[in-house]
Amino acid sequence: MFTNNELKKILTENRLLKNNVPRTKYINKIINFIDRKEVLVIKGIRRCGKSTIIKQIISKLKDKNCVYVNLDDFRFLEYKNLELLEKILKLNLSKEKLYLFLDEIQTIPKFESWLRTHYDKETNVKFIISGSNSKLMSKDLGTVMTGRSITFEITPLSYDEFKDFSKGGLKEYMEFGGFPEVVLEKEEDKKIEILSNYFNTIIEKDIIEKYKVQQHKQLRELLKYIISNPGIRISANKLSKQLGISINTVKSYLSLAEQVYLIFEVPFFSYSAKTKFIGARVSKYYCIDFGLIKVLSIRTEKSKLYENLIALKFFPNRENLFYWKDKNEVDFVVNNNAYNIISSQKIPKREYKGLEEIKQKFKHIQRLIILNPTTTKKENIELIKIQNFLDK
How many angstroms separate the most distant Cα atoms in the chain? Predict the structure, then answer.
């Protein structure tokens, strides 16, 4: 184990912040809770900017005793255990309140028990933890910590943030996505190389190594297929036949991909809980970043890219995000509003029919909206320019 001086040196180096564009919407939101007792949990896909946001928060807390620990630092590799966490804590305890930022804490086995113990014991320590998994804390601890933690989800740059980072427009955003390092890189070849590395690292470190996945090839093929086809509706049964793996394995792989934020699910809409979970009502899946779609697909339909764009707009509110299909389809149902997404100037009749059908079936549906490149209005259906909708 490290000496105290060695450990202090690593912690000091970890805290160094390069010149970065501030992620203001996250910084302000998290700082608002910084003096509450609850553990702050910061989650999001690997390389989306969590560590930078944490350092930007620390730079705002100049008058406070802040300690930042990057547990993904290679120098900790041999010491990833609770003893390391205990040593870090004891080294920095003082009469002054300690703000302890533990980055990528999920790399420490059984950290949950340690955290709960010290949360109850240390009245002068504020814990801020981060990780690359939506289920950052174990199910048991999650239950115990209910009411004792506040969670913040970080994504790659939204289109609004992208405009602060880059002079590029919507076309570039929909091609290379919003991972900060990729956005700031000027050369296209390097962007693609970085994105390929991200995908491979997430697969290897966050899924295969952590969950001891054996069928590497099938996992990769499944995720390439889903990410290359945003908005696809396909059953686990069909995927299992295509890949030669069991239905339960397919479901497990999809769940793991969601946990590490590669994809997110949009389930079938119904006011009836029974109808929602009929086996035939398969979910749709979207990718968390356009850059990953680019490096994994040969060609993705423009209409599907725009659909993914709007899905990302709704991502923060995804617990209320659904799709609906009968004779025709409605791309998204959000808070009693129905949306269809069109990438062309000419709007197919089926897009109107889908919205009219859902309104007839569900009287609670309020607004019928088509997001497309024009702004013409048709009776009770609103037509809103995609660019205007994104800028709201």
Answer: 73
Do 111 and 172 belong to one domain? no
Residues 148 and 164 in one domain: no
Same domain, yes or no: 263 and 277: yes
pLDDT of residue 139: 73
Q: Cα torsion for 8, 9, 10, 13, to the nearest 10°?
A: 120
- What total of structural domains would you count in the chain? 3
Q: What is the pTM of this model?
A: 0.93
Q: Could you tell me which of 159, 158, 46, 39 has the C-alpha nearest to residue 102?
A: 39
Helix (H) or strand (E) holding 340: strand 337-341
Flag whether pLDDT at 225 surpasses 90.
yes
Q: Is residue 313 domain-resident?
A: no
* pLDDT confidence band for 280 (50 / 70 / 90): low
Spatial distance between the Cα atoms of 86 and 368, rounded to a whole number of angstroms: 56
Average pLDDT over residues 170-186: 96
Span 291-319, average pLDDT? 95
Give a yes or no: residue 198 inside a domain: yes
The answer to whether residue 241 is domain-embedded is yes
Q: The dihedral of CA 53, 56, 60, 62: what is its sign?
A: positive
